[in-house]
Amino acid sequence: MQKIPVTRDGKKGSDIMIIHSDDVVKIESVKDKEYVIHTVNDKYYWAASLEAFEEWMYEEGFRLIDQMNVVNMNHVTDYDVKKGIVYLSPENETRSKTASAAWIHKDHIANVKNMLGEVKKLDRSSDPDDFQDDIFASIVEQEEDSRFARSYAMIQAIYERKKAEKKLEQSEQRYKSLFQHNPDPICSFDRYGYCTSANPALFRMTGYTEDELLNKSIHHLIVPEHMERWQEQFNGTLSGQNHLYEITFLHKKGHPVELSVLNVPIVVNGQMNGVYMIGKDISERKRAEEMLLRSEKLSIVGQLAAGVAHEIRNPLTSLKGFVQLMQMKISGYESYFDIMLDELERINFIVSEFLVIAKPQSVRYQQKQVVQILQNTVALLGSQAMIHNVVLEMSADEPLPPINCDENQIKQVFINILNNAIDSMPDGGEIRMELGMWDENTLLIRFIDQGCGIPEERIPRLGEPFYTTKEKGTGLGLMVTFKIIENHGGRMEIRSEVNQGTTVEIFMPVIREKLID
């Protein structure tokens, strides 16, 4: 839209005003280089040559329609051929003005009006592909008068330019939508590794805001052990290659986020301008792989146990019998015999735990109240806890729905957890047991001790066979515990801090049909 300097009276020294070309409906020639500028409600004066004026205003849709008038064809609302006048009124205006039009311009005015109408519709449209170019081609091809052909060609050029701009805008909007609404994190970097743009998925995944990441390095997001990998892949992408690799980011709150990343070079005018990073959160996949690996380990141990347990138990029974026989026959070595029997019992205990893994146990699932099972377990371990100066405290919400379980197996789970908690507090302490509803379908059983705790890097491996934090442990107790909870349709989570204690949480599905008193 052009800005036109005008005056009210056309006299030298008068104050100059600025009006916009879109408000102008016609330009009327007074004499050489002097024109009256008409809006629908007013008129002004302007001095310039017609040639300069027409060249300047041509793209705005102004056309010379007789010797006296240059008309803004965008505002032509009607054309009376008999009277030789056009009616001019901008959109949303009730008033109008007229301008004389030579008869020779009859078809020309209609053509320009139609062509500019298409340009207007294109301006208002959101999809340039909806428009056909037939009207322009037919009008331009049929026109023999060079004066009019130039005008049509100019409008067609304007139309094609606007259409190209619309398509470019549409393409940019599609790219922006793909970038902004992509569920996977995407960001771009300049050659120096500074983040120049990022989509909302990256901010959600990392917990950082736009101000905290844009125009900054993201080195603080990468775990230290992966920094060298990141730099190597980034430099490789700057050399023009795509790179696919895995890396671990750190969320703002501190927890790791596993990513599969594709680096793509950004090339502008043949020059390497930066790097696109397209990521995919694979944390869940990694956890699933770890669970699968743990399951495979359990399967291997089960196969091993099936072949070994029975072979051990047979000679074990013989050894235990002969030791007991020798204990009755020989005196003076009672302490040695006691130690031997204790160790044989320990071997038998380990073999028993092997058998839990090796073969399906005879289980009887019944509706049971977890509170009752836990109270019975606490009664069994009360004396052991007292010897170690450990206090057992229990609290439960009432009423709690029952669970479908094998009571002996659940009791074994509680014994394993409480024994571990007692062993972690050689100087005594307190174990709190809390029972309540996690949600409407899940029961939460929580054990909190004040023991020595477990280093964070060891927690993911708890439950693996033969992995233990105890000096004389086997790792089988916790493995069996995980297996029992899993077989009951539940899950178990362990949180711990060194010298702060450990929290074990068991989530079990409940039965909602009825409550057991």
CATH class bucket of the largest domain: Mainly Beta
> Which structural category fits the helices and strands?
alpha+beta
How many helices does DSSP assign?
A: 12
Main beta sheet: strand number and arrangement? 5 strands, antiparallel
Uncertain parts: none
The number of distinct β-strands equals 22
Care to describe what's here?
This protein folds into 4 domains: 3-173, LytTr DNA-binding domain (OB fold (Dihydrolipoamide Acetyltransferase, E2P), Beta Barrel), CATH 2.40.50.1020; 182-281, PAS domain (Beta-Lactamase, 2-Layer Sandwich), CATH 3.30.450; 286-358, Helix Hairpins (Orthogonal Bundle); 366-509, Histidine kinase-like ATPase, C-terminal domain (Heat Shock Protein 90), CATH 3.30.565.10. 41% of the residues lie in helices and 26% in strands. The chain contains 12 helices and 22 strands. Strands 5-4-3-7-6 form a 5-stranded antiparallel sheet, with no helix packed on it. The protein has a 5-stranded antiparallel sheet with strand order 12-11-15-14-13, sandwiched between helices. Helix 9 (334-358) packs parallel to helix 12. The relative contact order is 0.05. The mean pLDDT is 81.
Task: Give short descriptive properties of this protein.
517 residues; OB fold (Dihydrolipoamide Acetyltransferase, E2P); Beta-Lactamase; Helix Hairpins; five-stranded antiparallel sheet; 22 strands; 26% strand; rod-shaped
Which helices and strands occur, and which strands form pairs?
Elements: E1 3-6, E2 17-20, E3 24-31, E4 34-39, E5 43-46, H1 50-57, E6 62-64, E7 69-72, E8 76-80, E9 85-88, E10 97-100, H2 106-124, H3 134-142, H4 146-181, E11 186-190, E12 195-198, H5 200-206, H6 210-213, H7 227-238, E13 243-250, E14 256-268, E15 271-281, H8 283-329, H9 334-358, E16 366-368, H10 370-387, E17 390-396, E18 403-405, H11 407-423, E19 429-439, E20 442-448, H12 476-487, E21 491-497, E22 501-509
Parallel strand pairs: 17-19
Antiparallel strand pairs: 1-2, 3-4, 3-7, 4-5, 6-7, 8-9, 9-10, 11-12, 11-15, 13-14, 14-15, 16-18, 19-20, 20-22, 21-22
Helix pairs in contact: 2-4, 8-9, 9-12, 10-11, 11-12
